[in-house]
Amino acid sequence: MTANELEYFFRKYYKRLVGYAVGIIQDKVIAQDIVADSFISCRNLPNDECYIRNALFLSVKNKCFSHLSKQKIRKKFARFSLYISDDFIDGEKIAQDKIYREEMMKLISNVISEMPIGRKKVILRYLQGKDTATIANELSIKSQSVLNQKTRAIEELRKAIIAENHKLFFVNELT
Length: 175
Known about the structure:
The chain is mostly helical.
């Protein structure tokens, strides 16, 4: 698709796509970013207006749901962080929480250090808050590869944390 053709589609569909995205994610600024990313993703499609329109709307929908999914994960992490923050509870509980947090950070660090290099690079960038497209661009790999590696890394971390929490639960029950 040429620059003129891309501009034509941008002028014709941009406002509708932003409205569509805002309806899903309720945030105009993020919706505008998602729509811009969708145009970039669709720039190499064949010049068939019906095909491009459908691809744009599908891309926007998928990116919106992906954003909502990431937002949900971030909210869970924020709640978890609040739970283990130093000023959550006074006294002895603070010391216990601090030790627990340090142990969890060591566990996470150890699990990440044992991951294959590609997976490690992806998860570290993801934990820095970078999105899939940025990670894919930085590592010169496909977005799907980033998603696959991120999913596997998160699953490894989840299993390790669950196993560690079970150990801590049984130790606390014995004492």
